[in-house]
Each structure stands twice: as C-alpha cells, then as structure tokens.
Amino acid sequence: MLIVVACFIARSKDLMVTVILFSIYGLLCASFFMLMDAVDVAFTEAAVGAGISPLLMLITLASVGRFQQAGRYPVVLIGFIGAVLGGLLVWATLGMPMFGDALAPVHQHVAPRYIEESGVEVGVPNIVTSVLASYRAFDTLGEVVVIFTAGVGVLSLLGGGSYQKRFLIDRIIDREEHKILRVVSKILIPPILLFALYVQFHGDYGPGGGFQAGVIFAAGVVLYTLFFGLKVVQQVISEMSVRVLAALGVLLYGCVGLVSLLKGHNYLDYYALAANPKTGQHLGILVIELGVGITVASVMILFFYTFARNFGGRGAVS
Amino acid sequence: MFSHLAILQVVVPLMGAPACFMLGKARLTWLMSLLISVVTCAISIGLLLQVYQQGPISYALGGWQAPWGIEYRIDIINAYMLLIVSAMGALVLLAAKDTALTDIDEHRRPLFYVAYLLCLAGLLGIAATGDAFNVFVFLEISSLSMYCLIALNKDRRALWAAFRYLIVGTIGATFILIGIGYLYMMTGTLNMQDLAQRLPAIADNNAVISAYAFIMVGVGLKLALFPLHYWLPNAYTHAPNLVTAFLAATATKVAVYLVIRFNFFVFSPSWADFIQLGNHVLLILGSVAVLWASWIAIRQTDIKRLLAYSSVAQIGYMVMGIGMSSLLSLQASLLHLFNHALMKGGLFLVLATIALRLGSVDTSQLRGLAQRMPLTFWAFVIGGLSLIGMPATAGFISKWYLVQAAIEQQSWLLVAVVLAGSALAAIYVWKVVEVFWFTDKNTASNTRHLSQPQVPVTMSIAMWLLIIANVYFGIDTRLPVTLSEMGAQLLSGAS
C-alpha cells in the first residue's frame, strides 16, 4: 500500500490531492512501524507525518495555489538513476540476514548488553529509552539540536516581517458553521494534552518520551488554534515564550551534561547526578526527556505560528 | 578540565547557539558568538597540543565505553581538522560584525549568528566523533543550518539556491544514512574502530559493498565532487558574502575529511582490491574536476561564481591526492585542505569587503578598483597568487607535494593535470585582476557619488590575517607540513 500511495503522489498534478495522499502515507507508515514493534516511532510518525506536516503544506498551498505548473524533466536520466538505485538496493538485500533471524549480527554484538544489562546499569524498564537517553544520549542531544536548528531556519526565512492584523485562520473560523467542530474539539483537546504529559513522564516504563510527547502536545495546541483562532491561542502561549522555550529545552539538556562535567565525570554521565547510580540515571533521563519535550513542542508550535502568520494572505481557501 | 577538552570543543558552540538565540540584539549576539568561537578555537589548539604530545585521545560520552556508548576519538587528523574549522570559524566571525552584514535583513541578523554557531558546532562534531551515526546527526545539524545561512541573503535567488542545495544535500544525507544503516545491520556496531575490525570478515557481502557505494556517493554530494557539484556554484554565488567565505573555508573540507576517514579507516582494512578501484575512480574524477571546473571558471563573469568553480577545481586536487593514496599524496591532500581554507577564506573575505564598500560585486562596478581601494586590490592579488600556486605562497606548497607524489608514481599525466590546472587558475585570476586594474571612465564617474559605508576594522583585520597567513605558511611551512606528515603516516599505517 505504501508503494501504491507513493506512486500516486508522484503522478498527481493536483497539489491538494498530493498533500492529502502524503497524510495517508504518514498514517500508513505509522501503522507499518506498529507492525514492526517500533511503537515509539509510530507515535511520532502519526503526529508529524499524518498530522502537522500535511497541515503546514495545506497552509502553504493556500497562498501558492493548488495546481502544479507543467514542467519538463529529463525523464530518461531520472529513470536511469532510479533504476540503478533500485537495483543496488535490491542487490544489497541479497546479502542481508533473513528478517527476524536471531543470529543476525545486530543481535550478536552490542544489543545483548543493552537487553541484558540495561535494567541493572540504567534501571529503566524500557530498553529503547535507556539506549536513546543514556547509552547514546549524545546522539539524542544532537537530534534535539537538529529540531532547534529547523526552528531557527523557519524563523530566519519566515520570521519577522509584517504582522497582519487579522490572520487568515481567524477569518475562516469566525463563521458560525464550525460550532459542532468546536464543541467536539473542546472534548478532545484536554485528553490529548493529558496524554502528551503521560507519554512524557511514562517514557521510562512504556513506549514514549520527549519526542513523542512534544509532537502530541503540539498537535493538541495546533488543533485548538484551528478551531479557535491564532489570536486566542497566542494570548495563552505567545510566540515569544515559544521561542525562549525552544532554546531553553536544548539548554536544559546540555546543562545536564555540564553538571556531570563539573562533578568530574564525563559529559552526560548520569551517575554523577546522584549518589545512588540508579537514581542518578533515572534523574538524568527524566530531565533530558523534559528538555526534549519542551524543545520539540515549542518548535512545532513555532512552525505552525510562523506558517499561519505568513501564508494565506490571498484567501485562496474558502 | 583538560581531560574534557574533546567534548567541550563541540559542546561550547552547540550550547552557545541557543544561548545566543535568547539574546535578540544583533550587536550583543555578535560579541557573544565571537567570544564562543574564540574559546572554541583556543580549545582546538589545546587539543592539538595534547594529541601531538600524548597521542590519540578517546573520550567516552556518558561514561559508556565504546562500542556501547558514543566515543569521541581525536587523533592527529581530527585535531588538525578541528583546528582548521574552528580557526576559520573564528576569523570569519570576526569579520562578520553586524554592520558588515549588509546583505542580510536587519531583523534576521541575530539569527545569522545562531545558525552560524550551529553550523560550526555541526562541522566540529563531524570532525571530532568516532561514531558513524553521530557523524550523521552532526551532518544534519551543519547542513540544516547551512541551508538557512544561504537563504538569509536579501537576494531572492538565494532562496532558490538554498532550496536546490537542500534537495541535493538531503539526498546525500539519506544515502549516508542508508550506508550507515547497512553497516549496522551487518556488523551490529556503529563505532568506527569497531567497524574497521569487524568488516573484514564479511567484506564481500553485497550489503557491505552497497554501504560503501552509498556512503561514498552521499559524501561526494556534500563534497561537490565533480559530477555531483551542481549545487555548489549557485549556493556560493547567492549566499551572503561572509557565509560564502565560511562555507568555502570549512564545509567542503569536512566532507573531504569524511572521505578520508571512511576510505582509509573504516573500509580500508576490509578489501584492498575494491578500495583500489574506488581510489582510481576518485583519481579520475578529481583530475576531471581540476581541468573542467577551471575551464568553466575562466568563462564566468560573476567573480563569486568564478571563485566557486575554482573551489570545485581545488576540491579536485584534494581528491586526486586521496586517489593516488601514497604517503606523499595523502600529505599533499591534507596540506591542501589547510592551504585552500586559507586562500579561499581570504579571497572571499576580500570580496565581502569590496561588496560592502561598493554595494555589489558586479564586474561593471569593479572596474578601476585598483585605484579606489589599492590595499584591498593587493590583498586579492596575493590571495590569487596563492590560488595559482606561486612559490612563496601557501598554495605552492601543497601543489609541490602533489607533483612530487605524481612523479614518485611516475604518472606524468597527473603532473600535467596539476600544471594545467595551475595555468588555468593563472588565467582566471588574471581575468579578475585585469578588470580591477583597468578603469572604465563611465562607471568610475558613476560610482563616485555613491555612499560608501565604513568597513568595520575587525573585518579588515580578519581579511589581512588570512592574506598574510597565505604568505607566512608559504615560507614557514613547519606547522602544516609536520601535522600533515603525521596524519599521512597514520593513514598509510591504517591501510
């Protein structure tokens, strides 16, 4: 099904259709990840791939128009590169271990220690969390910075500029016919936000963590904005505060590392944080996950704010 | 604290960026980021001394030993790269005072510094780490910030250039990720040293060979290696002037480092024959890049674009050195990394200064520049001579080593390529000098009554430091030659 949808995306000339197909593609991906037992990734993919990013594309479409201009492409060259690439990928699979093979190298080298010892060394039941937030915590710090960088990038392209008095979204949602949606959303949004917090703080035990919680929280806020308007939301969560929070989240994460440095341990060594090793690990993971959650949620909301503010001036959506 | 220098090298700019993000004022952000970059540069010097005296440093992040945790591994090549990147980062930032950023909208200038620090941290992270996946993470940080640095230019064409770079760069990053994923699948480890030990046992596996191909093509895209270079001239031409100086001096250098690291450390112990084939391909592509890009450069009228094509050609020299893969040629490559950073950084800073004074670098505006800005003109001439490879400039040293390496292997064709490349460089540098030298009456009178904004003192200092360094390292070659020799020995010892 993924392949079928991808083909449709490539063929479609109507950008609106493309975006909706993208959303379906994201949802399919999420289900696929579920099947592969990667629930953590599925969470994020469902919120971002199926939710927020198609929404951002839709907002952009509102100002650039719906149909693609016909262009000419070097079809033969593209086809050739595609064929070589596909061939290489297929050829490579011949050398790979069978799916689910217990003797595959992945299960032989590093992973056994993660599985057998992380409970003792890190003391967190969810192995994914202990790999992500402790063994390879520096990669995760890098990923958070990537998200922060994306925020900086969007701001540097779309930030500043003139503030419109009335946002397009506000104009659309002023109409009365959205009453039902509003009532439904009022019922839905509190549980979404609550669920986000649950995912955030329960990440040590079940699937979840800062990334997932951040996007779910942001999705809740975005949904609220869609039905009640940008102005109302910005009274609660101003753009300035989102900016500051985005930076603070990264700093919070980084400072955990600096604390362990000051205590004479290596960077991001959580054993430095408390006398009891397990408490130290637990505390470290909790704090850095909080940092991740804050940055991810803030950057996602920031994306939405800047997009909503800048686009849709022509009122193409009606 | 000295035992933690390895991680501080990357964490200082990495944490400095969000801190700067909260400042908001352009002047304040500049001072703060300048301070951070100077500290970063000082750390890299400290690291270099440490490695020079005591040998490679291994730093286990989070206290987890590799291969379970992420390892920072600084040997002499890493330390050398870190020095180049952080020193160039600090120098260009010195020039990038907020009033010097005339090609960026005023309210976006604070973001310039944030993105700049992020990019610096990303590049340093790639150069410092000993973990393959960590390379990818920091590659993403540096690339993303690079896209927005390019797009910051007021000129709308910058957006298109940045978008094209984004597409190409993302494809490159995806290829690298696929390659690293395959390697992990086949070995169960991400640590580079560990990979090097475990790969030989499964060297003729399809997935491992594909991983090599994917990683090399991916890095080749980032490197702007000859047939994959189409993004570079546009990106360099339309980026803000100081961003071009920074990118030209650092970004492609780090990509060259990645080629060296994967080619000679990770894959090389596995299959000598196959690497030999890869090296031949690199050699051919490098040679073609030198000749073809120099030829295209001659035909350019826009000076920034001309220098951008010249960069593609210079990258060709470095790749040629890797391709020959002898002790001497590797040393030449490493030397050229250093020297090219000096000359291109210097030349682009000269252009930035001119652009600031005259408002543009269109050829028509530049006629008769030698009379109006004589000092800056001579700075360009010195940088240009270094680019050609005149004796007593830095550019001569690296080309000399490359020619020696080619003679050692008795491949006269390669000697001819290097010499032809230099001759072509002489032509395109002369073309620019000619424009600067001869006055065109009409335009000279037109530009006279244009307002001339003051060039910040710091910018002139940074420019002259780099230009003088071009001469200094052409005469006193101890530092780069010693370091690159140690690096080359390390490389050939590993292979």
Describe what you observe in this structure:
The complex is a heterodimer of chains A (318) and B (495). With 318 residues, chain A is mainly alpha-helical. Chain A contains 13 helices and no strands. Chain B has a domain at 271-495. Chain B is built from 21 helices and two strands. Chain B has a two-stranded antiparallel sheet. The interface between A and B is large, with 59 and 64 residues.
In short:
The complex is a heterodimer of chains A (318) and B (495). With 318 residues, chain A is mainly alpha-helical.
Please name the defining characteristics of this protein.
heterodimer, A: 318 residues, mainly alpha, 13 helices, globular, disordered C terminus, B: 495 residues, two-stranded antiparallel ribbon, 78% helix, cell membrane (chain B)
Distance between the termini of chain A: 32 Å
How would you spell out the order of helices and strands of chain B?
HHEEHHHHHHHHHHHHHHHHHHH
Q: Cα distance, first to last residue of chain B? A: 34 Å
Of all protein chain pairs, which has the greatest interface, and how many residues does each chain bring to it? A-B, 59 and 64 residues
Question: Helicity level of chain A, as a percent range?
Answer: over 70%
The profile of the biggest β sheet of chain B is: 2 strands, antiparallel
What is the total domain count of chain A? 2
Order of helices and strands of chain A: HHHHHHHHHHHHH
Strand fraction of chain A equals under 5%
**For this entry, what is the oligomeric state of its chains?**
heterodimer
Return the average pLDDT of chain A rounded to an integer. 76
Structural class of chain A: mainly alpha
Q: Which of globular, elongated, flat, extended, rod-shaped describes the shape of chain B?
A: globular
The largest sheet of chain A, given as strand count, sense and whether it forms a barrel, is:
none
Individual helix count of chain A: 13
In DSSP terms (H or I, runs of 4 or more residues), the helix count of chain B works out at 21
Form type of chain A: globular
What is the β-strand count of chain A?
0
